[in-house]
UniProtKB/TrEMBL annotation:
<feature type="binding site">
    <location>
        <position position="109"/>
    </location>
    <ligand>
        <name>[4Fe-4S] cluster</name>
    </ligand>
</feature>
<protein>
    <recommendedName>
        <fullName>NADH-quinone oxidoreductase subunit B</fullName>
        <ecNumber>7.1.1.-</ecNumber>
    </recommendedName>
</protein>
<keyword id="KW-0472">Membrane</keyword>
<keyword id="KW-0813">Transport</keyword>
<comment type="similarity">
    <text>Belongs to the complex I 20 kDa subunit family.</text>
</comment>
<keyword id="KW-1003">Cell membrane</keyword>
<keyword id="KW-0560">Oxidoreductase</keyword>
<dbReference type="GO" id="GO:0015990">
    <property type="term" value="P:electron transport coupled proton transport"/>
</dbReference>
<feature type="domain" description="NADH:ubiquinone oxidoreductase-like 20kDa subunit">
    <location>
        <begin position="43"/>
        <end position="151"/>
    </location>
</feature>
<keyword id="KW-0874">Quinone</keyword>
<dbReference type="GO" id="GO:0005506">
    <property type="term" value="F:iron ion binding"/>
</dbReference>
<dbReference type="InterPro" id="IPR006138">
    <property type="entry name" value="NADH_UQ_OxRdtase_20Kd_su"/>
</dbReference>
<dbReference type="GO" id="GO:0005886">
    <property type="term" value="C:plasma membrane"/>
</dbReference>
<keyword id="KW-0411">Iron-sulfur</keyword>
<keyword id="KW-0997">Cell inner membrane</keyword>
<comment type="function">
    <text>NDH-1 shuttles electrons from NADH, via FMN and iron-sulfur (Fe-S) centers, to quinones in the respiratory chain. The immediate electron acceptor for the enzyme in this species is believed to be a menaquinone. Couples the redox reaction to proton translocation (for every two electrons transferred, four hydrogen ions are translocated across the cytoplasmic membrane), and thus conserves the redox energy in a proton gradient.</text>
</comment>
<keyword id="KW-0520">NAD</keyword>
Amino acid sequence: MAVKLVESPEGHTGQGFFATSFDKAIGLARANSIWPLPFATSCCGIEFMATMGAHYDLARFGSERLSFSPRQADLLMVMGTIAKKMGPVLKQVYLQMAEPRWVLSVGACACSGGIFDTYSVLQGIDKVIPVDVYVPGCPPTPEAIIDGVMKIQELVKNESLRRRNSDEYTQLLASYGID
């Protein structure tokens, strides 16, 4: 997306206007200022810590400010094994986040239950909350986590401001029991 200043028809050099849509400008600003909320329960959380460290530096992608308050975050990063008893807590954290909000499922356990095919482990967080991007691996590498964040940024950048008010989005939330 190129934003350029265009000269007015009257030839005024000091005045101009932006030649882009409002959606694209807002999307670009949102994509480069994501505030993640890490919800880490096991080894994938350690990989996320490495991703935030100096060697990989997730801050380069506009995600430097981690938020440990759901009310101030817009990206929920679920990493690790989620027990079924933890499902309602995860859903409550998701509901406390303001719209627009996105979810990144990191690791095999969060994506599908991983190697823990037992009665006590949730077989994927998408049973409880909608997921935007999945990052596979056991545990995924920091490069894979960064790739997942970049996919979220691409989704945020191209999302219409009206998508969250659409019937399709409302039906998706209703299918998870979210008003």
